Structure formats: structure tokens, C-alpha cells
């Protein structure tokens, strides 16, 4: 544990865990942000495979949500309007007219308590009733565990005292080249998904579309990201030239998402209990703030945000006293 910053008068610490196979992870008490994830390449050399700010002070505002836990609900809520039964709640609008990633504060800008045990960091945070406009006090617990099989296992747990929506994810930007040697356009992506969502101009999910009808968004056979972002499909242009879309995951026990980088030989397979994933290809990354020891560029990293399908708040309402529990496993090869 090391003090790394002071945000709003509060000390911020970083914690590091490692396994016996060359992996290590560093995360902050602020937002539970993963700032470093070192993974061996095909020569056995461990390098960082997530994007981070060069200057830790940028985590305070964290414009890209690098590495954090986002919630109480990930993604966008149109006009910030949340309906639960007969009640309507106005969530904070922090993305134009919409609510994004839990609001201006959200879990991403909260200070979590941490305990460290062998290869596990456990983060806890109690969000008060009404925080960011959401009803109910909620106890949150998230853990990061590194297994000796080179897996990062993220476990999510929450318990509200009123019926309220909960939909958590981690917002790490992966770049498997290691210590960011180049952008992710040469990475290959495979998603077991036959359905994705089209978005409106404000990135609000509109309607489902079959991958069969839009081969460029059919990732059931892996393809390089460069061939996707250069396609003239209007859904790619609408999000700034790339992917920023929800995909429904087809049922299977297999790894539902696979990302690979031919040059470093690293690949990442993702298993999750969640029925959907938002893939975001870093389209909004600009030159500043600086990332990973140099100037930041568009497509520096890719987020694999496992979560519930969008626009179906009913499906992720958690009753008072009930438990929300999810697990996502990132396996590195
Ligand atoms: C992703 C995207 C958003 C936003 C944010 C930083 O989850 O869906 O468009 O840019 O990250």
C-alpha cells in the first residue's frame, strides 16, 4: 500500500497484488481504478496491458473512466429518467442530456476501503440513499483476484436497502502490445454475439440488429479492428469512427469474447455471467491527457464492458435486501 495522491483533501492509496506466474495488478482506492496489469508475452516478458494516465492526478476527474468500476449503472440512461414501478427518479445528467456511468460522482469517483489478502484485493463502499439521484443505500463489494493460471477474476456484489437498479462493470482499456507499443487497430476481436444494438446520435441504444444483416459487426469470426473502424457503416461514424456498442452474448460455456494481438502473442479470453458486453474502441481518446508514457492517441485501448443489456432497467432492478452478484474472468494466454 502506497500513498499516491490527495484528491479533495483525502489521501489516495495504491495496492499491488501478484500471482506465481508473472502477473501483477495495481489499483487505486479511488474508483477501484486498475492502473497497471502486467502480463507475460510469448517470450515470458511481463508488460502492462492496460492504458493509464502518466500523471496520477488525472484519475481525479478521469475523463476516459480508465480502469474504474462504473456504476451504480453502467452506460447511458436517456434524459436521466429512471422509472421504478410508479416512481420516477431524476438521475444526474453528466453526458449532455443523459446520465452516464452512474453520474458525475458515481462509483468511479468514490473512495473505497480496501483489504489485501494473497492474490486478492477486496474493495467496499457504501453509497448513501439518493447518491447521484438513485434510491436506496447500497453496500458494494468488488474484488480483483489473480489466479496462477493468469486470470484476472472480478467479482461484483451489492446489497441495496430499497428496490434500485444495479449494473456494474470494469472500464479497463486493454492494449495487448504491452507497455503500449502501438494502438489496438492490429488486434483481432471475436465475440459470440448474433445481435447488437444500433445507437442514436447521442449514443442511446435504439434497437436490436442481427449480425447477419451487418457483416462488419458480426464478430463470430474474429476480425482485425482496423478493418472495422475503416468501414463506412453509419453506426461506426456516429460514435467517432469505431465501436461503442452493446452486443448480446450468445449462450455458451465457452469464452464469449476473445481479443488477441499477433505481434506480442498475447490473447485475452473473457467469460462472464452477464448477458451483454459494450465494446468501446477508445474513439474519444485525444492527445491530452498523456497516457502510458507518451502522447495519447485514438484507439490506444479497447474496453470490454460486460454488463446487462441496455434499456432494460426492469431486468437489473434489485429488491431491498436482495443480493446482486456477478463474475467476469479475463484469462491471458
Ligand atoms: C464508454 C463509452 C462512452 C464514453 C466512455 C468514456 O463506456 O460508452 O461513449 O466515452 O466510455
Kindly describe this structure.
It is built from two helices and 28 strands. The chain is mainly beta. It has a nine-stranded antiparallel sheet. A hairpin with a 2-residue loop joins strand 8 and strand 9 (87-90). It is globular and about 55 Å long. The protein starts with a strand and ends with a strand. It binds alpha-L-fucopyranose (FUC). Residues 64-65, 203, 244, 278, 280, 284, 303, 305 line the site of alpha-L-fucopyranose (FUC).
Question: Which key features would you list for this structure?
Answer:
333 residues, mainly beta, 9-stranded antiparallel β-sheet, 3% helix, binds alpha-L-fucopyranose, 6-stranded antiparallel β-sheet
Which series of helices and strands comes N to C?
Answer: EEEEEEEEEEEEEEEEEEEEEHHEEEEEEE
Q: How far apart, in Å, are the first and last alpha carbons?
A: 28 Å
Reported for the largest beta sheet, the result is: 9 strands, antiparallel
By oligomeric state, this entry counts as single chain
Q: Percent range for helical residues?
A: under 10%
* Bound ligand species: alpha-L-fucopyranose
Query: Tally the helices: what do you get?
Result: 2
Strand order of the largest sheet: 11-12-13-14-28-24-23-18-21
Broad structural category: mainly beta
Amino acid at each position: 500500500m502506497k500513498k499516491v495522491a490527495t484528491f479533495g483533501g483525502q489521501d489516495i492509496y495504491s495496492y499491488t497484488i501478484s500471482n506465481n506466474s508473472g502477473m501483477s495488478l495495481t489499483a487505486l482506492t479511488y474508483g477501484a481504478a486498475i492502473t497497471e496489469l502486467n502480463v507475460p508475452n510469448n517470450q515470458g516478458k511481463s508488460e502492462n496491458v492496460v492504458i493509464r494516465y502518466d500523471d496520477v492526478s488525472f484519475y481525479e476527474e478521469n475523463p476516459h473512466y480508465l480502469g474504474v468500476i462504473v456504476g451504480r449503472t453502467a452506460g447511458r440512461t436517456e434524459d436521466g429518467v429512471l422509472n421504478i414501478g410508479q416512481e420516477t427518479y431524476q438521475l444526474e445528467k453528466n453526458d449532455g442530456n443523459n446520465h452516464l456511468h452512474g453520474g458525475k460522482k458515481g462509483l468511479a469517483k468514490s473512495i473505497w476501503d480496501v483489504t489485501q489478502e494473497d492474490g486478492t484485493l477486496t474493495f467496499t463502499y457504501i453509497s448513501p440513499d439518493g447518491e447521484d439521484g438513485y434510491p436506496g443505500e447500497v453496500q458494494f463489494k468488488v474484488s480483483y483476484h489473480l489466479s496462477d493460471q493468469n486470470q484476472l477474476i472480478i467479482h461484483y456484489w451489492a446489497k441495496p436497502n430499497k428496490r434500485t437498479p444495479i449494473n456494474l462493470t470494469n472500464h479497463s482499456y486493454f492494449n495487448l502490445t504491452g507497455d503500449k507499443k502501438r494502438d489496438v487497430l492490429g488486434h483481432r476481436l471475436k465475440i459470440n454475439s448474433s445481435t447488437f444494438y444500433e445507437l442514436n446520435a447521442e449514443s442511446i441504444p435504439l434497437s436490436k440488429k442481427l449480425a447477419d444483416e451487418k457483416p462488419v459487426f458480426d464478430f463470430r469470426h474474429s476480425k482485425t479492428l482496423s478493418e472495422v473502424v475503416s468501414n463506412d457503416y453509419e453506426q461506426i461514424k456516429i460514435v467517432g469512427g469505431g465501436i461503442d456498442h452493446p452486443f448480446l452474448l450468445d449462450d455458451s460455456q465457452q469464452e464469449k469474447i476473445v481479443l488477441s494481438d499477433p505481434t506480442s502473442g498475447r490473447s485475452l479470453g473473457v467469460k462472464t455471467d452477464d448477458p451483454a458486453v459494450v465494446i468501446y474502441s477508445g474513439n474519444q481518446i485525444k492527445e491530452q491527457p498523456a497516457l502510458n508514457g507518451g502522447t495519447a492517441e485514438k484507439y490506444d485501448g479497447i474496453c470490454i464492458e460486460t454488463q446487462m443489456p441496455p434499456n432494460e432497467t426492469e431486468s437489473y432492478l434489485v429488491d431491498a435486501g436482495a443480493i446482486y452478484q456477478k463474475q467476469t474472468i479475463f484469462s491471458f494466454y
